[in-house]
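To whoever picks this up:

The parser on our side crashed when reading a file containing two proteins. I've narrowed it down to the boundary between the first structure block and the second sequence. Both blocks are reproduced below exactly, byte for byte. First block:
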Amino acid sequence: QVQLVESGGGLVQAGGSLRLSCAASGRTFSTYYVAWSRQAPGKEREFVARIAWSSGSTSYADSVKGRFTISRDNAKKTVYLEMNSLKPEDTAVYYCAGDSSPFRTWSAYGDWGQGTQVTVSS
């Protein structure tokens, strides 16, 4: 239904910045929420940030609040995650996901990308 492709990951020093992109294609017109989550080796996937596509309303995990910003470009059908003041603890594979329902939790979203690696060196 909806295809999502993450990009923009890479290696950055602690304190640096990185911007991730999540490009959507397919039948995206009904998407309600798009969320970023991340997973480090040996750990469970955790929520990072969420944006409501229509209103632009955002929410963040406490661990990234004040450092990360989620946004979207309607024309490009792309959601971004701007990451500032990066810490080694931010090292993980970052995923974007979307869903047409405003009631599902992020982990149950129907459309997922393949992820992009972010590595923060100390």
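<<boundary where parser fails>>
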Amino acid sequence: QLQLVESGGGLVQPGGSLRLSCAASGFTLDYYAIGWFRQAPGKEREGVSCISSSGGGTNYADSVKGRFTISRDNAKSTVYLQMNSLKPEDTAVYYCGARWVNCANYPRYNYWGQGTQVTVSS
């Protein structure tokens, strides 16, 4: 079965760093774009970053640009989100989604992970 599994979330102080991983189970990510999304309680899901299947196209939300970096290792069927200079407003459940080749709005992603909690607090 096709599954995505997020990991790497946790509790971190403001200004700290975390690296999230999105790993494919049962299939390779070679031909899939991977998007990272987050959702805080009572708020809509928002796009954070995405990377095309080739790795040549990336996008970042304005709120995270310069602080977050997305990358992929197709040999490991894994996409990473390096998060630096974390702020309390980054607190949310982070999800990764997969779709064919190119980044898109979140309704167009076919596969989703279960999410990993990121909490930024002193």
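After patching the parser it read the second block fine. The first strand starts at residue 3 and ends at 7. The chain has a mean pLDDT of 95.
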